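Help needed: design a sequence for this.
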């Protein structure tokens, strides 16, 4: 059985190297996207300090639909172009929001959230979803976090193989 080790590395790049190693071990030999998203969310929420939400949204029927997560119950459907998550899909890149109250159209699932990081998941036939992290602290995320979570997304994608939109749609 996998056991999460505490990550008490000094710098953020060291933290994310240790986190990546743990995630690779956790997902090794498993390709189911939902199971891997569930375990990835749990590891992120357990290992990263100062989070109040960590999880996945997947593209289904042309919009984002809530996937596995840790934290308070969240809004289920987010249209492309709406909120931080839908904007990340529309732009095709990660979005780091230091102050969610200053982001036009931010969708408040948990009123405790003050900052947010959204990283798209690039499948073979386009963006298949996002990883979304929320923090109760303003300015919680920086460029090191964006790079670290983009690596987390790459590890999840690699473990799942070529995840296409149709694969996730079949899982519904
Ligand atoms: N804040 C997100 C919505 C998802 S929750 O944070 C879990 C957004 O604006 O897209």
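Sure. Designed sequence:
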């Amino acid at each position: 059985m996998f056991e999460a080790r505490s990550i008490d590395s000094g710098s953020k790049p060291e933290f994310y190297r240790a986190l990546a190693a743990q995630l690779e071990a956790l997902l090794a030999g498993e390709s189911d996207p939902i199971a891997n998203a569930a375990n990835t969310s749990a590891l992120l929420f357990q290992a990263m300090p100062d989070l109040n939400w960590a999880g996945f949204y997947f593209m289904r029927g042309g919009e984002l639909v809530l996937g596995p997560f840790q934290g308070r119950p969240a809004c289920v459907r987010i249209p492309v172009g709406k909120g931080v998550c839908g904007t990340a899909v529309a732009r095709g890149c990660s979005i780091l929001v230091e102050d969610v109250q200053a982001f036009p159209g931010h969708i408040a699932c948990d009123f405790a959230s003050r900052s947010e990081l959204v990283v798209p998941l690039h499948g073979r036939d386009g963006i298949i979803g996002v990883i979304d992290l929320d923090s109760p602290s303003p300015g919680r995320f920086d460029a090191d976090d964006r790079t670290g979570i983009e690596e987390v997304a790459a590890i999840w994608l690699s473990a799942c193989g070529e995840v296409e939109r149709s694969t996730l749609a079949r899982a519904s």
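The helical segments are 12-27, 33-47, 83-91, 143-160, 165-170.
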